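Form 7-S
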Amino acid sequence: MARGGPRLEHGRRLELGQSFQDGGEHYQRVRPGYPAESADWLIPSGAKDAVDVGAGTGKFTTLLLERGMAVSAVDPSPDMLDQLRAHCPGVYATQGTAEATGLPESSFDVVSVAQAWHWCDPLPASTELARILRPGGTMALIWNQLDTSVPWVHRLSRIMHAGDVYKPGFRPVVGPEFEGLKSHVAGWEDSLSTADIMELTKSRSYYLRAGEATRSKVLANLDWYLHKHLGHAAEEDISLPYLTLTWRAAKA
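Output:
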C-alpha cells in the first residue's frame, strides 16, 4: 500500500484504505518487493518470531521467512490474505488491523508494517503492537518510495499521482511505547516493462478511487510520457529507481 506522507484524517484513511480490499492478485503481480538490505538491517540478532501487520499479499513477509523466522501475518483484506497464503503457505495468516491484531500478547520479537503505516491510526496501533511484542522487541516501519531525485521519475510520479515519493524530512509518528527510533535508506531499481508501469499505476489509491474519465486521462498521459516523450518501445523493460526507507524502534 502506497505512501509515506503525513498522517491522514481518520475518515479519509478509511476511505482510501478501502480501495485495497480487493485486487490482491493484481497487487501481487505489479507491486515491487523490498531489498534484502532493509530486512537485514531491521532484524535484531537472536530474533525468532515475527508478525507482518498490513501484510497485503506477503511482499515483505517473504523476506522474514527467508531469514528463518517463524512468521504470522495480519491484514484487513481477505482477498490480500488469499494471495499471501498461496505464496507463503508456512505463514499463519489472520484478518485484523494494526489497532486490533487479535494476536496474543508478548508473542513476537519483531513486528513489521510495510507500506501500510499511513493507513493506521499511529497511537492506538503503537499500543497494540507493543502489546504483542516481547520486552525489548523491535517494531519496523517500511516504505518503498519512488526516487524522485531522478528527473524523469519525478515527472512520472506526478503523472501517476503517486504519493509514495521520497520526502527527506519525513519521520513516522509512533507512540510512547517505543524508543530509539532509527532510520535506514536503501537505494535499488526494479526492472519492469512500460506495460507494467501502466499496471502499477492501476494499483494505486488515486487510480482505484477515481472515475472512468480520470482513469482514462491518467493512462493516456502515461502512454504519451513513456512511449512518445521518453521514446520507450511498448513492453520495453526499464529500471525504475526506488528508495526503501526502514524505521525501527524498540519496545520501551
